[in-house]
Amino acid sequence: MSEIMPDDMIVCRCEEITVGEIKQSIREGAKDITGVKRRVRAGMGLCQGRTCEKLVQQILCSELNICPEQTGRSTARPPVRPVTFGELAEGGVV
Amino acid sequence: MKAYDVVVIGAGAIGTSVAYHLCEKGYEVALIDHGDIANGSSSHCDAVALICDKQPGLDTQMGAASIALYKELAAKFSYDFEFDQKGCLYVCETESEYEAASAYANRQAQDGYDMSMVDAKTLAEMEPYLAKDLIGGIWTPGDAAMSPYKVCFAFTEEAKKLGLKVYTYCSIQKILLGEKNQVEGIETDQGTIYTKKIINCAGVWAPDVGKMAGIEIPIQPRKGMNLISEKTKRIVWHKILEFGYMMSKFDDINFKRNVSPLVEEYNVAFNIEYTNDSNILLGGYRGFRGFDARSEIEAMKAIAERGMRFFPCLKDINCIRSYAGVRPFVVDHLPIVSDVEAVPGFYIAAGHEGDGICLSPITGKIMAQVVAGEKTEFDISKLKFSRFEKNVL
């Protein structure tokens, strides 16, 4: 799959991170989803990796020749969707 | 597997700095971590190096020296760790806080540090979105921000140029000791590494490494938690903390804040910063929960509530994530940067609690001096492991 993704294709839309940048982070030592995230910010934006995590996983699998179970996942943290600090303080939806 | 002059255990802010400074002295060094670079506390913290949250004396002296080193390294390294000497404001809600803050700032200024009081008017000019009813605060222009995990990557990448060998995702199984209890090597799941010197920089996990060498290191995990906003326009220009943060940090400041039961219960102290990537980091909470680093909903509410007291405009800004990590807490609030008499060749640089990022450069520099048998930059007798001598198993 990732063989057909061009290097300039944007994978993480929120942070505008490309296939090429993700491959570079893997060459620099990233071995899992969190390692990629920490090096190039893929998954750190508004959607928190909902869109790009599976794509990042595919790139990791093909670059490192590993299976999806070995890439880990990013740590699940509240809030489950963006919520204003105002709503949060009032005990709104978290 | 190979032999090295020194093996550093732990690739966080302390371990990577120690490894870099040892490489700079010409040692052959290996850096081992059971996970990735910056996998633990150094990627679950805030992003500053301050002197205005330090106790007068050695604590402040080390902080100031470390910030000066950061500045040098930022100019020297090709890896950008986003160093920004933006300054810090410590804001006061009441006259009694302002008095206590003035006494603290005067004491620090007498010791030669650039710290002064600003009034409400100046505060409003410096930070137009800050609540208007604040009395004033302490201004420390030299305090700085940086990306904590990029600090770890920067030290690692720069040290690699000097020959550092990195073993990530490598678990230590046993520390090999000789007849006189001296360090001889480490057995790992990637093979045996021979060395005469080990530096334990494993932070909150340093006690586990210590046990393998037969010593008990009194470091406990203390949880810290922050919130992150969506990318937003700039509403804050400096690092800002509330004076009550001191209370949260040291538990021994003798005053009560006028806060809600929730904020009180979670010991939440407001602090805020605007990152290089246009997010706001809002803190914070500290508590003892063992190694449980899950986000706590009630603490999130309390952080949001306290944040809006100081920055009312946060009300309409989205929070996209919370994060929490464990900090290496030592009961006297001083790190351990020391040799260990009972185990020749075994050293510890750990226990910095929330100051690991701040004290990373100076700790690395001092530890390298200790290993080389040189005179250290400061008198670090207060940081010796022997203050817990009875802990030899």
Automatic annotation (TrEMBL), chain A:
It comes from Anaeromicropila populeti. Residues 10-60 form the BFD-like [2Fe-2S]-binding domain. It comes from the Bacteria. This is BFD-like [2Fe-2S] binding domain-containing protein. CDD domains: GlpA-like_Fer2_BFD-like (cd19946). It holds the Pfam family Fer2_BFD.
UniProtKB/TrEMBL annotation, chain B:
It comes from the Bacteria. Residues 5-369 form the FAD dependent oxidoreductase domain. GO terms for molecular function: oxidoreductase activity. Keywords: Oxidoreductase. GO terms for cellular component: cytoplasm. InterPro entries: FAD-dep_OxRdtase, FAD/NAD-bd_sf. The keyword Transmembrane helix does not apply. PANTHER family: FAD-DEPENDENT OXIDOREDUCTASE DOMAIN-CONTAINING PROTEIN 1, SARCOSINE DEHYDROGENASE-RELATED. This is Sarcosine oxidase subunit beta.
